[in-house]
Structures
1.
Amino acid sequence: MSFAKALDLLRLAEMAAARHMGVSLSEIEAEFGVDRRTAQRMTRALETAFQGVETLTDEARRRYWRLRGDPRLLHARGLRDGELAALELAIQRAGREAATHEVAALSSLRDRLLATMPAPHARRAEADAEALLQAHGWACRPGPVARGDPALLPLIAEALKAPHVMTIRYRGPNAAQARTRRIEPYGVLFGIRRYLVARDPAARDGRLRHFRLDRIEAARLEADSFVRDPDFRLEDHAACAFGSYHDPAEYGPVVWRFAPQAAAVARDFLFHPGQEVTEEPDGSLTVRFVASGWLEMAWHLYQWGDAVEVLEPEPLRRLVEGHRRTDLPALP
């Protein structure tokens, strides 16, 4: 067996041991980039190399391979420097986002993992991770970010777990004084501004609203719980908008065409998770998706100067038409 295949087998053993149901053939194909026949050979190698491999079948008749027994061989691999560096980078990013709850949770996970390793391995992993972090010291999020209360995110995280009702004092865009509101939290959207996605039971329409975290002056967790909509998915909700702002009245098809000189740059962007991209005969690039938030789209399109044309919707085309500059020295 080659060195690379041995490492793949150890990685497969980790997956089979770490997951409650084990690992399926489709998951092996996705993880290692192999076809079905190779995935089947890998499961046979797993059964040969490790004792305690069990096979399970779920309700859809999919088979899973689960590794049970003495985990010392897997622990001997330890925590790799790249994995520890990724954890450290995640802790640093969470700290910059003022996500103190995530900082505490990730730090605790890092410490527990290091505690399971032999001391020499732990010291080596920490030293190697430090070198990686220094090499990747530029990996941060530049640009403006709205300030907010760092104690608010841990409180929201606690509310989302139960889930619990929250009472907030919220200052609207035109309100001189904040209003007290009882809300049912559903999630948080991160961007230049952070928004709490929540339902206001007092509102008659029952739709989800976005509350800017920097406008929440006070918040507390209530003992009352609520029943979250089982069909709600934060990813689907976020995809309804180009950025953080949702407006049902603006929701609809969006079509942008990037000029040939900008097509290569635009091709590397994911403008929306549901986008469709078409290569045009003249070398231009057409991007289609469905979303709302014309103002945030306009802010982004300004960076492309005259290298992008809005085909749909018409109100967005009119919004940007007078601001397509020709003198911008670079594309985004």
Note: The chain has four domains: 3-76, 81-135, 152-238, 248-321.
2.
Amino acid sequence: MSNSKLYDFAWFQNFDEKIEELKTLAMPENWDYNNGDNRKNKILINYIHHTFAKLDSENKIECYSDNCTFNTGLVTLNQEEIHGYFSKNKKPNTTIPWYFVGWKKSSDRVLSQFSKLGELANYFHDPSELIYDPKIELRVNIDHIIQDNIARFPRPIASMDNHLISNILSGTIEDAKRRVRRNYKTAIPQYFNGKLQLLLPLCLQKKSEADLALVIEKYNGTYRASTCLTLEMAINNARLIAKPDDEWLKL
């Protein structure tokens, strides 16, 4: 992430090592893809970069004297909040103002210098936005989903005739709508490009296993859907708000 606000803000001696330290300090969670990607903790890396950028946009980086801190949104097993802690970067010939010292629990004495610790990033204003309302009409652009996202479909489905894919997709969306009526947790909120959206499972091959996530957003009093995501993409976006319920969005 060469354009990362976090990298512009602070120098890290070994970023991957620091991410592993954060993973160890925080409550246990799966931060790896199961798609053959060998780089560890990619979900956590994405999470920290985007969380910092959101906090920066909300002016929630707390600074005092030669130190500053931000709230990672993660907690320890004992539910203590974890903060990133920085000091002034005194290295010569650099434009990066801070260097990373370490991850600190809210009870850490080094944080007592701050009269106020950093707040959480805010991704929504109305909690009802997190819940799918089955009374609202859902309009789905099936053709657009297929044409623009066919590379994301499972290979056995992607190789079919478009008409057949359309029928399978339509039936799968109806299944997802029935499923969310039974259990509101089926619709998982995600944050992407400054928007709060909802994700529904697309179980194209097996009724019990999601292959893709349908992206839904409110527009003029209706829901609309015109794209889908791989599960890896979906969990990256959803994890910014909260750890998804593992009913279907899992790796």
Note: The beta strands are 10-11, 62-64, 67-75, 81-88, 98-105, 138-140, 188-192, 195-202, 212-219, 222-229.
3.
Amino acid sequence: MHQPHVVILESRRFPDITEQWYNVAVGALTQQGITYSRVTVPNSVDLPIALRILLDAAHHSENANIRTPEGYLILGLNYKGDIAEENHYCIWDTLLNLTTHAGVPSSSVVVFEKEGGDLNHAATRYVSKIQLAVQSLVNLMMLRHQLLNPPFAAAA
């Protein structure tokens, strides 16, 4: 069996914070023996577009050099001064709909901070949520693997 691979898709609007989040995610994935690649976008509003492009590329790729990931980990931080709260929830909902429709395991930490002071603590406050998101993603990937392979899958 090959080593599982995950794409970490992240918004870089607050690079110092998301870099710390990325490092936490990489540590948790590495502990599980999962390889990863990183795709970044400038803002959280770009996450659904990038995810759609990644899903389409994985689904339609005839290039043997492109490895289809077993899952996606999505990281993003929104701030009230940058985006309306309802737009944040629209982004989150769109991400969930894309991965659910594609049937691809995913997990995310896409959060909305209402106060500017909260941004100073966002890097550390969500560490446990990122670790839980990775564990949730691993569990979904294992479930998918079990269901697509014998004895659950129909013998060819």
Note: Residues 76 and 90 are 13 Å apart (CA to CA).
